[in-house]
Design brief:
The protein has 126 residues and is mostly beta strands. The chain contains one helix and seven strands; from the N terminus they run E-E-E-E-H-E-E-E. A hairpin with a 5-residue loop joins strand 5 and strand 6.
Length: 126
Amino acid sequence: MSVNKAIVVGNLGRDPEIRALPSGRSVASFSVATTARFNNRDGEGQERTEWHRVVAFGRPADICERLLSKGRLVYVEGRLSTRRYQAKDGNARYQTEIIALQLRLLTNGSKGSAPATTDATDETPF
């Protein structure tokens, strides 16, 4: 048995990038920042921000285009995927991404509408 699951709750670093696959289906890609707060050995407060690349396919990508924007708080659940690509310098590079299976738009602590939710059941690999 194996499990491949990632869950992040954080803020978008910029608006999602939307493009179309040769099949015509939409792909949305965006980065989500999560920040861990901790005390170092001297007891001083520290922060460490991690950036997570997220990709959504099909209908969820369309929803990302309409609802997500820089700074918005989002819940992302999906699976990790690492792909290999050729960089402009000719060297092989690797990119680890979360393939979104579920997205929830959360409020940023202010009063607002109920969170929007979508399940990405029609996922497509690269």
